[in-house]
Each structure stands twice: as C-alpha cells, then as structure tokens.
Design goal:
- By secondary structure, this protein is of the alpha+beta class.
- The protein has 2 domains: 2-95, Nuclear Transport Factor 2, Chain: A, CATH 3.10.450; 107-247, 3-Layer(aba) Sandwich (Glutaredoxin).
- The chain has 9 helices and 11 strands.
- It has helices at residues 2-16, 25-38, 91-105, 134-140, 143-148, 171-180, 185-193, 207-217, 240-247; strands at 44-49, 55-60, 65-69, 75-76, 81-84, 87-90, 113-115, 123-129, 151-157, 225-228, 233-235.
- The chain has a 5-stranded mixed sheet, sandwiched between helices.
- α6 packs antiparallel against α7 (185-193).
C-alpha cells in the first residue's frame, strides 16, 4: 500500500509540474469578478490552477474552496480527483495538505506541549486535543509507546466546546488554559487527562484561543485530530502501532 501511495504521489507531482504557477492575470480577474458578483458577500482570497485544463481552485476568505471553470460560468463544491494508471489521487486534498503543512510549520516549539522520545526522533505528529474527550485520553495513554517508537508528540489546544462554552461544558477550556499557563505543561496535561484534580490557573496567554483558531483553519472538526508533517489530517483515535504504520516506522 505504501509503495502504491508513493507511485501515486510521484505521478501526481509530475502531472502538476506544469501548473505550479499562479493563475493567468486575465483569468484571475474574470473569475474574481464573476464569482463575487454571483455570490453576494463572498470575497475571493486566492485563485490557482487545479491541475486540469481550464479548471481553477478558488478559495474564499473565511469560506470554502471551490473548483471553477476559467469562464466563471460553472463551478462545483467538492474534491477533484485524478484517475491515474496506478490508482486515484485526490488532488484537492493534496493541496489542502500542502497549505496545512505551512500553517503547522508556523507553530513555535515554545507554544506546544511536547512529549519527546529519549532517543532519535523518527517522526513528529501534532495533536489537537481537549482534556475531557474520551478518545483524547485514550490517545494520550499511547504517548509513551509513541515516544518509544521515536515519535515526537506535539499537543495543541482545541477546546471541543469552543471558546465560549456553556457553563456545564467549561471544564475542557478551563483545563486547557490552566495547562498552557503552567510551568510544566506536560505534567499538567497528563494530570488532567488522568482525571486528577489540579488547581486551575489563568494568565494573559492567548495561546489556547490561537491554537483553537489554527485548528479550525486546518480543518479540525473534533478531537483528537492528528496532523502529520506532510500536512495530512487524521481525525480520531489511532493506536501507537497504527500511527507507526502510517508513518512508516519500524522497530
């Protein structure tokens, strides 16, 4: 399966090689005018070739990405796939991964809560997490094994009930704020995920809100959400050994 994925990746990159530049200025202007006129209130943020003749990916500010014909007369909402000799590749998802990887690369080490392997780091995963969700706790129990396998785990805060939850749902947000305001974030996060009682701390840090918004920007819709270095988003729980297989790590 991994070899097939590599073959598909190479084929896709070859196919897209001639579409690495931005859209033609005339096409960009025509598409922007047609779509913003038809879709009242929507503002085009970027336009780039979709990898297929006459089709362009158009991203709206604070909105979706669509695929539009260069004339601006037709568009569809959804993913664009390429049927190759060796299989099928989701072109739209490939582009999402690229943009997601750029956004994730902007996160400073000092802003994450990191669990490091003792030896060689073979791979890095970023995990958007809440302290109260069952599968976040279940995944956290896999962290020692992940570290043993050489996987660095970088936690980012993602309160699953949002930044303004109802009072009955405040616990996760409060514990994440307390974690990111603590001197030993790793120990504090582990304690909360083990359902241990700890005094709640507050501070002037805005990291929880920033990371929640980053999560929304990269497509997180629930916790846990795992992002690989490639930008691939893996929603939900996976065991350490399952993740190692995805990452191509062997003992």
């Amino acid at each position: 399966m991994k070899n097939l994925q590599k073959i598909l990746m190479i084929s896709l990159l070859t196919m897209l090689a001639s579409n690495t530049f931005g859209a033609d200025a005339d096409v960009e202007s025509r598409l922007k005018e047609a779509l913003e006129s038809a879709l009242s209130g929507m503002v085009v943020e970027s336009i780039q070739p979709a990898g297929v003749d006459d089709l362009y990916e158009v991203t709206f500010r604070d909105g979706p990405t669509i695929v539009a014909h260069e004339s601006g007369s037709y568009f569809f909402v959804g993913d664009l796939f390429s049927v190759l000799e060796n299989g099928v590749v989701n072109i739209t998802e490939m582009r999402r991964n690229s943009e997601r990887a750029k956004l994730m690369a902007s996160v400073k080490d000092s802003d994450a809560t990191i669990f490091m392997p003792e030896g060689e780091v073979k791979a890095v995963i970023s995990v958007f997490t809440d302290t109260t969700c069952y599968y976040c706790r279940k995944l956290h129990a896999e962290v020692p094994r992940l570290n043993e396998l050489g996987v660095e785990v970088r936690y980012l805060a993602y309160p699953r009930y949002g930044l303004k939850p109802a009072e009955k749902n405040r616990r996760g947000l409060d514990e994440l704020v307390s974690t990111w305001c603590s001197q030993d974030r790793a120990a504090t996060l582990t304690a909360y995920k083990n359902n241990e009682s700890r005094p709640l701390k507050t501070c002037t840090s805005t990291l929880v809100a920033e990371q929640f918004n980053l999560g929304r920007a990269v497509g997180v819709s629930g916790t846990p959400a795992i992002v690989l270095e490639t930008g691939e988003l893996i929603p939900g729980y996976k065991t350490a050994d399952q993740l190692a297989e995805i990452l191509g790590i062997t003992e």
